[in-house]
Amino acid sequence: MFNTCSGCGVSNPAKEIDPAGPFAVCPGCGYKHRFLQLPLFILTGPSGAGKSTVALHLAGRMRDFVVIERDLWWRDEFIGTDGAKSKEKSFHEFALEVAKSIGQSGRPVIMAGATIPANTEPCVERRYFTAIHYLALVCDDDILAGRLMARPAWRNSSSQDFIDYHLEFNRWLKANAKKTSPPMTLLDNSRLTLEETLVSVEKWARSIWRGGKKEAREGVARYLDKNGVVIDWPAREPDKKLVVGYLTGKFAEGTNYTEKEVMGIINAAHSFGDPCLLRRELVDRGFLGREADGRRYWRITK
After folding, report:
1. Predicted confidence (pLDDT) per residue in 231-271, tens digit
2. What does the alpha-carbon distance between residue 236 and residue 293 come to, in Å, rounded to a whole number?
3. How does 42-73 read in b/e, with b if 16+ C-beta sit within 10 Å?
4. b vs e for 75-84, b when ≥16 Cβ sit within 10 Å of the residue's Cβ?
5. Is 106 helix (H, G, I), strand (E, B) or coil?
6. Does pLDDT of 82 surpass 80?
7. What angle do CA 77, 38, 16 make, to 5 degrees?
8. What's the CA gap between 244 and 278, in Å, rounded?
9. Which residues contact 240 (CB under 8 A, 6 or more apart)?
10. Are 141 and 171 in contact (CB under 8 A)?
11. What is residue 237's predicted lDDT score, i.e. its pLDDT?
12. 87-111 confidence digits (pLDDT tens)
């Protein structure tokens, strides 16, 4: 979506991330694009563990999320020259780019597809998410084999090679989920009904999402009184950016301000007695524009 810079027109996914917006900053021209940086939820597991079934039913009951199946995006261009699925990260990059774009709606994405952190965490597109959370569906080997053998013939899931491959992945997840970076949550649905599995997955995603939103609020709230007035200047650089970003919201886009008006807004918005510091931070960090003589200020549209 915003890999192509609106400032210089160059396409480059490797934008620098300024957490104050957050902004995706073009490494070529410095143009800043404000975007929504949300968590991504990945539902992984071997074939037959229930990823597609869970995603199908979650899509209708979690309207505040976007639930998608990653394999819907698979295309022949991701097939290697040997006829096997490419192990290169192009498909993983593509999947994250699509999830990033969908997330700009304000709804976090739950993406169902067999993967592990080693495939996604090194991706360039990973930077556009606050975190990626992984839940791996697993089950007993005999149950998994039975599910695969019971599938319709057109799915080509009943060959011994196919079954062995996914049994191995199933065992690997059980043995290594806590050792990956970040660790994965395991959900063994061997003896769970579909409804119980759905409830467990929904609870997992919602608890993380609620916690993330609370943490984001508390990041600025630590420096505000009950009336929303800034009561302290942070020591940590990330928190400084949060406070300056918060103060920027006090200025309307498309409006010109005199220096007196700017100082009046800043004085009303803070109580620790250093309006000059805050004005300087707003200007130096590129949130407010200022004419050389200081007669006119304006909010910079990101």
Report:
1. 999 888 888 988 998 899 899 888 999 999 999 999 999 99
2. 31
3. bbbbbbbbbbbebbebbbeebeebbbbbbeeb
4. eeeeeeeeee
5. coil
6. no
7. 75
8. 7
9. 233, 234, 281
10. yes
11. 87
12. 456 899 999 999 999 999 889 999 9
Antiparallel, parallel or unpaired: β 132-138 and 40-44: parallel
Task: Answer yes or no: is pLDDT of 224 > 90.
Answer: no
User: Which listed CATH number (1.10.1760, 1.10.3470, 1.10.10, 1.20.1740) goes with 237-299?
Assistant: 1.10.10
The DSSP symbol for 77 reads G
**Token pair in block for residue 301:** 């549209």
Numbered ranges of CATH 3.40.50.300 in the chain: 40-218
Q: In what order do the strands lie in the sheet with 23-25?
A: 16-18, 23-25, 32-34
Q: Provide CB contacts within 8 A for 128, sequence distance 6+.
A: 17, 24, 35, 37, 96, 100
d(CA 291, CA 282): 14
CA distance 269 to 13: 36
For the full predicted model, state whether its pTM sits above 0.85.
no
In contact, 152 and 166? CB cutoff 8 Å: no
For the cut 90, the answer to whether the pLDDT of residue 286 exceeds it is: yes
Taken as a whole, the chain contains a residue count of 302
Q: Is 83 left (phi over 0), alpha (psi -120 to 50) or beta?
A: left
Q: Where in the chain is the domain with CATH 1.10.10?
A: 237-299
pLDDT tens for residues 154-175? 989 999 999 999 999 999 999 9
Range 40-218 classified under CATH 3.40.50.300: yes
